[in-house]
Specification:
InterPro entries: FkbM_mtfrase, SAM-dependent_MTase, SAM-dependent_MTases_sf. The chain is α/β, with parallel strands linked by helices. The protein is about 35% helix and about 30% strand. It has one domain: 3-Layer(aba) Sandwich (Rossmann fold), CATH 3.40.50.
């Protein structure tokens, strides 16, 4: 286990991971992440889904979150998540499970070169990689079983399976109205999950009154078909298929 030290504003953050891992060696807060973390309300309740080594979880805790739930299905990466939590003395409730559209188990590929490229595997996933089984629950089931009555913010970054997490949260999100920072990765949606990226964008626009892309470091509302088409174009042509979307029930001021 190795440690890296980064800054979030004036706060010191320790990250734990495997030296040589592409994500661990290069992870830093980007503009969408920084925007979302600075927008957290006081004593927020936060869900970090696809927590990886725990940067979102510990930064949220350092920002004053009252409760942080972190989910990471990869057992090896989960151990680094626990190390990161301990190194920052952060109050994080970490769970070694995946969240998806149903409860059960699913195959999982652990990428040896980059923890950020590990992903769930279905019969439609391209590539023939060694896998192991991981336990999966749903967002709604977890919220019910833990009697959670407030959620302020959710981060989802699960390499193409974001839509499954949202399907599993279809009761909770409209009821508790959290904000959401979600990775929109057209490549992983097509290659790993075999879905049209427009399906995820459509679901987000149907669920949240306000969906923002980031352009020149600032949130820009996706407010109609032309704006949606422009976002899809830019995601595929100029963003390397990877963007973050910030979704809310109240407008960003």
């Amino acid at each position: 286990m190795h440690k890296r030290y980064i800054k979030f504003g004036e706060k010191d953050v320790t990250l734990c991971g495997k030296k040589g891992d592409i994500y661990f060696d290069n992870a830093v807060p980007d503009e969408p992440f920084t925007f979302a973390m600075t927008a957290l309300p006081n004593a927020a309740v936060v869900f970090d889904i696809g927590s990886n080594i725990g940067m979102t979880a510990v930064v949220a805790a350092k920002q004053g979150a009252a409760k942080v739930y972190a989910f990471e299905p990869d057992p090896n990466v989960f151990s680094f998540l626990l190390d990161t939590v301990k190194a920052n003395a952060a109050l994080v409730d970490a769970h070694n499970i995946a969240l998806g559209s149903k409860e059960g188990t699913l195959s999982f590929f652990s990428n040896p070169d980059s923890a950020s490229a590990s992903h769930l595997v279905t019969e439609n996933t391209l590539g023939h990689s060694p896998t192991h089984r991981v336990r999966m629950s749903t967002f709604d089931a977890f919220v019910t079983s833990h009697q959670i009555h407030r959620i302020d913010f959710i981060k989802i970054d699960v390499e193409g399976f974001e839509i499954d997490v949202l399907w599993g949260a279809r009761e909770t999100i409209p009821r508790l109205k959290p904000s959401l920072l979600i990775e929109f990765n057209a490549f992983t949606m097509v290659g790993f999950r075999d879905i049209n990226p427009r399906d995820l964008l459509r679901l987000l626009l149907e669920t949240f009154p306000y969906v923002y892309r980031f352009k020149d470091g600032k949130p820009q509302l996706i407010d109609g078909d032309d704006a949606a088409l422009g976002f899809i174009h830019d995601n595929l042509v100029s963003a390397g298929c990877v963007d973050d979307l910030y979704c809310t029930f109240q407008p960003v001021l």
